[in-house]
């Protein structure tokens, strides 16, 4: 299983927005969601996409989209905006709730989500432009999790915490990509590895 965690420090935690870009850059969450879960004409069933939202009014909110459980998932921006609104409009989020098939919401921090995955044996990797090339590291675990920052990057405090659990800081190239483009590259690298293409 592949996990991606996007930390959006400003993403709104209620669905009362019109333009996701003006809702603490929720547009980045939408682009990452598309990049993580969509193939041409089908869903990646081996991917779980997580977004941790740190914006108002009730942070931190953990959204989880489980590829193997999604039904009627439409990956165009308009539909994803509607889905995000619906998920964020859930009144009580203290407990984990499945809002629609395969889409979960709960109140949980980035650090807690990372530790829970680590405790399940998932290999944690931080994505950063100045990390070790992804092509140079061993990705032998079956389950892997890649943690990304948003337009600002990961907060230092959280990054330092995650690095206590992470195997490596990895890079997909020497240039700064959009978070969503980084996810596309990681998915492509893992596809090639799994299909024995080097
Ligand atoms: C738009 S970038 C953030 C740029 C931000 N100014 C910073 O200093 O982190 C969003 C995220 O994409 C990931 N990213 C961007 N380029 C990357 C690269 N070449 N290799 C690995 N991760 C990358 C990182 O996780 C980064 O936090």
Task: Describe the structure in your own words.
This protein is of the alpha/beta class. It has one domain (2-194): SPOUT methyltransferase, trefoil knot domain (Alpha/beta knot, 3-Layer(aba) Sandwich), CATH 3.40.1280. It is built from five helices and ten strands, in the order E-H-E-E-E-E-H-E-E-H-E-E-H-E-H. The strands form two sheets. An eight-stranded mixed sheet has the order 6-7-5-4-1-9-8-10. Strands 2-3 form a two-stranded antiparallel sheet. Strand 2 (38-39) and strand 3 form a beta hairpin. The radius of gyration is 16 Å and the shape is globular. It starts with a strand and ends with a helix. The site of S-adenosylmethionine has 18 residues, from strand 8 and helix 5. Residues 127-129, 148-149, 151-154, 171-173, 175-179, 182 line the site of S-adenosylmethionine.
CATH topology descriptor: Alpha/beta knot
Integer tally of domains = 1
CATH homologous superfamily label:
SPOUT methyltransferase, trefoil knot domain
Which H/E pattern describes the elements?
Answer: EHEEEEHEEHEEHEH
CATH architectural designation: 3-Layer(aba) Sandwich
**Helices and strands: which structural class?**
alpha/beta
Annotation field: number of helices: 5
What is the CA-based Rg, rounded?
16 Å
Instruction: Tell me the strand percentage band.
Output: 25-35%
Mean pLDDT: 96
C-alpha termini separation: 20 Å
């Amino acid at each position: 299983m592949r996990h991606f965690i996007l930390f959006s420090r400003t993403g709104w935690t209620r669905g009362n927005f019109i333009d996701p870009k003006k809702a603490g850059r929720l547009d980045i969450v939408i682009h990452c969601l598309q990049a993580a879960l969509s193939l041409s004409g089908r869903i990646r069933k081996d991917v779980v996409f997580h977004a941790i939202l740190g914006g108002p009014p009730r942070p931190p909110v953990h959204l989880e989209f489980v590829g193997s459980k999604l039904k009627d998932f439409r990956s165009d921006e308009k539909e994803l905006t509607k889905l995000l609104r619906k998920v964020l409009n859930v009144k009580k989020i203290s407990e984990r709730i499945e809002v629609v098939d395969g889409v979960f919401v709960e109140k949980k921090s980035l650090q807690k989500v990372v530790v829970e995955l680590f405790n399940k044996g998932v290999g944690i990797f931080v994505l950063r432009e100045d990390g070790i090339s992804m092509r140079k590291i061993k990705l032998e675990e079956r389950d892997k999790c890649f943690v990304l920052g948003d337009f600002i990057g990961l907060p230092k405090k959280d990054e330092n915490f995650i690095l206590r659990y992470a195997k490596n800081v990895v890079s997909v190239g020497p240039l700064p990509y959009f978070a969503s483009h980084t996810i596309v590259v990681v998915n492509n690298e893992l596809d090639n590895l799994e299909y024995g293409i080097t």
